[in-house]
């Protein structure tokens, strides 16, 4: 077989060192383009300027920046989230892993393959550096966002990496919330990586290649796919619906509202350790929905539980989707139109000391369970400046069957909290400030 | 809560009888549109003609036709496949289920909600007829394709529905193939429904609502999500890649090749029972990939196993992707350039008595297993005129560790075979010819 493959490699296929994804990228993007002339260019192709295409997925999201991308980036359509356990006790190995990951993240978010050779141009006698399934696909607005769990700083009382005294106090051990039924196998993790893209194949490719690079240093603890984002972070985006059929994210922080983003999302100087300045805190919750039970609830009942109309998304106190909630409005029988146990009321800043979250959740369907019920729900993701004052406070208000009426239809089965370091520039690596 | 909800329903939200998805459809489609002027129209909106948008997802795939849609329809990007067990022994209940399903399929493939009232316009005191999560989304080229399993005709020797003598001989019990490790919970099923769409939320919505309609008559046995189709059925589509990183579907039947489609896909008069004239036979295989093992194989090794170059997809005998395979070509050392145990050789019509399949597979990632490995692979779907001469013949050629070299990296864990009846017109129901 050797000679025949050498023949191929020496022939029409792959001059060593040429990045294949970029070669194929222009064709891929062009095939996806709808209409023309919108001013976007295919990237990475030598003749990109000659072939303008209308596909925004061909324009990468900047990896470098003051903050990590994937937080205030308008939410992409697909998610692959992975939590890793670090399996080395060597600080040097951990640092080299973060360096290797950062290099690969730079490559992949730009729409390129990982590694020096790419998928198909390396020496034929070694495995390809890139696994190849994203060849020909555009960058698809891929973002990769990293966070560090409590166990990276100290695990079972052991300070593996000399980081114990650098753990921010904001990175709390989440308390038990009433009603939690957490499954340990899908909780925690030393490191989390959120891959968001408009194509699931691109998001899956990214997590797979990061997992592969981690070999011997970190292994995947759990991973989760999601689709159909449930939270809008840009005024330009239509509010998507969750699997209860309701618009989800109407009252979310809008990324155009920079003052609110500054106040509620980014850790700033003086908040905690300086290595987190410009970072943020990520909380994830895998929330299973009792879909079949919900589907037997009346329209009136569903709307009362949520506090919004199912069709328009407008509050039960009246008006369209973006009308402010009027908690004082009463119906003819003297009851609040937005019920006291409704989800929107209990989650609202007015009932949580003004606290707000930047949410970025994704619907998930993991097939069906053994009873034929959809194994489905919401992979809830939120970013914040201080989880103690934001997620924990709000979730304490929501949790328990005597609180949010929605709790009859949901179960929290997975949980994680992570400190996401600030962004990196065109050099440097994820979390460098933690190690220097 | 009652009065307040009544106020909402009587007010700004939902005049009874108006189809909400169509109301919201125009805005949703417009928000997704890229560029303008491509001549597509938003459907369902009263003023659609005034707001042309460029989104092909706004144009539904015809549900009515001689054949069912979803077979030779150019493959959409996303899959939700479900197998059902019929849980009634009443023939009348089975017929009514098929009628109800057909009505709902007509609605949903057109981009509408199911039922008379839609999601949010029915009486508030009963559950909404539609679950609502696709409100505002375009039709997204949704197709729904039904097939009947062997157990619908007779199960455990019992002829539940008086159909035993109508089972086509083509609907064989698939033999055990060498290497199979089938898990019974994800095999078989009385009825299969394939939902394909360009938006996973639309595909999930369809299966969910069909499962809900089936309550008391059929329940989901298993379901599977997939993405990034691995087989092209149109010359206009770029060949996608599977999770081995190789183009998959290069040699697939092209739908433009109508003679081949007629010869290999559609059951014709005289083939079997007349109720299947214009139908086709569906075989599904859930194929788990040993991703991490594959990723350690050299580029040369991977290409030798497949028989094609990873980058271009061209055969190892030379040429670009669509160059014919030259099985006689030898390398300098006298070995065949396309190895005798390569996948493309063993699957090729030349080595299978000319047999061809119309493939329509989807990549799947079900998260990670307990060892942190990707629970991933290919949900293989193929359509054919006679599985005995097509899938069974080819799979016998591929199966076993002494045959296709790829078998070291894959395991077949799920399996199904179904008789897909012909299409229905603007009236009638799925499988009507079987019951009359």
From TrEMBL, chains A, B:
This is Deferrochelatase. Belongs to the DyP-type peroxidase family. Binds 1 heme b (iron(II)-protoporphyrin IX) group non-covalently per subunit. GO terms for cellular component: cell envelope; cytosol. GO terms for biological process: iron import into cell. It catalyses: heme b + 2 H(+) = protoporphyrin IX + Fe(2+). Its EC number is 1.11.1.-. Residues 239-424 form the Dyp-type peroxidase C-terminal domain. The lineage of its organism: Bacteria, Bacillati, Actinomycetota, Actinomycetes, Propionibacteriales. Keywords: Heme, Iron, Lyase, Metal-binding, Oxidoreductase, Peroxidase, Signal. It is found in: Cell envelope. Residues 68-227 form the Dyp-type peroxidase N-terminal domain. GO terms for molecular function: ferrochelatase activity; heme binding; metal ion binding; peroxidase activity. Involved in the recovery of exogenous heme iron. Extracts iron from heme while preserving the protoporphyrin ring intact. Its cofactor is heme b.
């Amino acid at each position: 077989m050797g000679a025949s493959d050498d023949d191929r490699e020496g022939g029409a296929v792959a001059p060593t060192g040429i990045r294949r994804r970029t070669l194929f990228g222009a064709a891929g993007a062009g095939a996806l383009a709808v209409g023309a002339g919108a001013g976007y260019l295919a990237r990475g192709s030598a003749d990109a300027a000659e072939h303008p295409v209308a596909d925004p997925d061909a324009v990468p999201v900047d990896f470098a920046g003051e903050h990590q991308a994937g937080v205030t980036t308008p939410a992409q359509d697909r998610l692959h989230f992975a939590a890793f356990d670090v399996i080395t006790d060597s600080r040097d190995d951990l640092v080299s892993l973060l360096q290797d990951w950062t290099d690969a993240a730079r490559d992949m978010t730009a729409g390129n393959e990982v590694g020096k050779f790419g998928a198909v141009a390396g020496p034929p006698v070694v495995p390809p550096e890139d696994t190849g399934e994203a060849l020909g696909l555009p960058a698809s607005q891929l973002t990769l966002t990293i966070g560090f769990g409590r166990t990276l700083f100290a695990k079972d009382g052991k300070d593996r990496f000399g980081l114990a005294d650098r753990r921010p106090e904001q990175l709390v051990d989440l308390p038990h919330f009433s009603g939690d039924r957490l499954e340990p196998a899908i909780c925690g993790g030393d490191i989390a990586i959120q891959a968001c893209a408009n194509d699931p194949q691109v998001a899956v490719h990214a997590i797979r290649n990061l997992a592969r690079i981690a070999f011997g240093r970190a292994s995947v603890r759990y991973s989760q796919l999601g689709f159909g984002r449930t939270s809008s972070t840009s005024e330009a985006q239509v509010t998507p619906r969750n699997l209860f059929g309701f618009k989800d994210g109407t009252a979310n922080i809008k990324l155009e509202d920079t003052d609110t983003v500054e106040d509620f999302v980014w850790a700033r100087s003086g908040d905690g350790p300086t290595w987190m300045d410009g970072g943020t805190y990520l909380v994830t919750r895998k929330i299973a929905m009792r879909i079949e039970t919900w589907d037997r609830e009346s329209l009136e009942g569903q709307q009362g539980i949520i506090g919004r109309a199912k069709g328009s998304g407008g509050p039960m106190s009246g008006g369209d989707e973006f009308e402010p909630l009027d908690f004082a409005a009463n119906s003819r029988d003297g009851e609040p139109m937005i019920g006291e146990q409704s989800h929107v009321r209990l989650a609202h800043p007015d009932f949580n000391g003004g606290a707000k979250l930047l949410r970025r959740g994704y619907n998930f369907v993991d097939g069906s369970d053994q009873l034929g019920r959809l194994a489905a729900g919401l992979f809830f993701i939120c970013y914040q400046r201080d989880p103690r004052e934001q997620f924990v406070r709000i979730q304490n208000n929501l949790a328990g069957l005597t609180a949010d009426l929605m709790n009859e239809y949901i179960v929290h089965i997975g949980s994680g909290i992570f400190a996401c370091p600030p962004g990196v520039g065109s050099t440097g690596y994820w979390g460098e400030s933690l190690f220097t």
